[in-house]
Every structure is written in C-alpha cells, then in structure tokens.
User: What shape does this take?
Amino acid sequence: MPLLPSGKDFYIGNVLILEPNNNFFECPEGHFWYQTPDLAINRPPFVRGRQIILDFVHAPVPKDREEAKRYIQVLIGLEGNAYYWRGEMLSNFPADGELDDADLAAWHEWLESDQTNAFLDKTIELCRAQAESNRYNTSIVGMRTTADEALPALEETRLREIDTRMRALEAAAEAASADHDEIRGGQISDELEELLDEVGAIRRHLDRDGGLAAFVEGYLNRVLHRWGAAEKCFREYLSSAPFHAAAWLELTWCLAEQGDLAEAESAARRAVKLAPDLPGTWGNLAMVLIQLGERDEARQALDRALELDPTDEKNIYIDRQFDRYFEAETDKMNDTAHRRQAAPN
Assistant: This one.
C-alpha cells in the first residue's frame, strides 16, 4: 500500500463484498451482494472510532478494473498498523485538494502498478464467485442463527441449553425484583455467574472469536448489567453475523445504558430495518428517541410497537409513562437553564 512523499499512508480493501457461499437473499442473475453505508442512518465522511451502519445491496459483477474500483475502500493509515475509513471508494479518491502534486503523482503511479491491478482482478473474481453462489440462495435470512458452522456439536448443544436457561433466569430475576426478594435475586445472580464462567471456558476451549458463544456471553453480561462487557461481545458477534436483528437490539440496550445515545440510535434503526415486524425493535427505538428528546418520532415508533403486539408489557409501560418521560426531560432542561442563569459571572 502506498506511503506517499508527505508521509500519508493508505490501504485499500474489498471486505465490503460478501464472501461466496454466504447464503443471503436472492438477487438477479449475475449480481453479487455487498455492503454500503446506510445513508438514512449515517453519511460520510465518517469520524474515526465511530461505528458505521451498513446496508446490504446488490449490483452486476464489474466488467473491468475501473468498475471494480466502486467496491474497494480507501482506508487511512494510522500508527501501529491501524486504519480507519472516512467513506471513500477507490473510484472517487482522491477528492480535489486531498493530495498535493507530489503525493498525487505517487498515488497514480501506485494505482497503475502490477500489484494494484492484480488486486483489482482478484476483486472481480470475488464478485463473480459471490454472484455464482447467489444462484442457490433461498431468500431467507434467519432472525437467530440456526447453526454455528464448525462449532463442535457438544459445545453448540450446551450453549443453546445455557441460552434457554439464562432467558428463564432473566424472567425470574425480574419477578424477584418486583417482589423485592433479595435472597432469590442473589441466588439467580450466582447461577448467572456460574453460567458466564462456563461460557468463558467454552470460548477458551474453542480458541476463536465471534459465533454463538459470543452472543450467549453478551446476553449473560447484559442480564448482569455489565454493559461494557456485553457491548464488546455483541459487537464481536455482529462482525460475523451483521444481519442478526436480535443482536442489534441487544447492542442498542447496552449502548443506551452507557449513555451513548447516538450509537444506540444507529443500532436501534439497524434492528428495525432488519426486523420491521418485531415489536421489540420498535420499542427499543422508541426508548432511545425518548432519551434524545425526539417526541414525535418516538411516539410513532411506540405506536408501531403496540400495533404489532398490543400485549407487550414493556411497551405498554412505556406508553403509560410517555408524557411523564418528556415532562421530566423538560424539567431537567429548565433546571439546568435556571442554574446557569443563577451562576455568578
């Protein structure tokens, strides 16, 4: 990758193209699936360190190297072999004024090199292989993973048993809290800790990241209110299962509890887009929008959640408290303004 005369460092990558044999929605013959920024949620230029929400789209296999550049990211190099993406693709980089004359000359020389041309040819082959695999797609994307490829049968069975048990424990913990039963609450917490230790041992045994184990570990941490640890697990899981709406929903909760409302809103909107018929995704979006003070859109999201399931207790509670939430927010803003006015100059 080019290190330009000014010291600027760049990389290129084609990771936005889905891997062949990744069963996804059907698409027209000769088309391949790839990811692109969801412009309804976030637009470039992207800020370093912020999560980018991507959408899934398809396009015809590129006919030549020039067309292939549309699907290749230009990444900005940082210290320590790190990099980030502002949103540029090879087809539209550099923008006017991005590089000085010396850097621009070096960039174009690298762009015409055998190394770059080989990478472009490899990208075309990747698109072609992905398009070929699409001929066998089923038009079905599951809300939950049905199997974790290469996961040993015993570990997968145990993880699913833990998943079932922890959901029962979560319901029991809510009941114990409502009854102010601290003894029962402590017993449930102890069992959750034991399950968390067991999942950690399974992950160490498997010696790999992501997959079902990451999701289960994230869920256990979330039930135990360890929001940062849960967030890390869900992000790890979503890196390999980006269309799992339930994981986006869980991530929303973790981010909101940590006060990262901008990221929580992005995750909530991704969950809604992936599962528009799931009341929980709309209810979570409503709660984030309430915290952001977006009254009208929060009301619309909550109404949609209740339309999908009028019996959902959590959304019913939010509905009953809806006006009170915004009254409290208004009182908080007024109190802050009053204290600022009263502060000495």
Notes: Residues 139-149 have pLDDT under 50 and may be disordered. Residues 318 and 324 are 10 Å apart (CA to CA). The first strand starts at residue 10 and ends at 13.
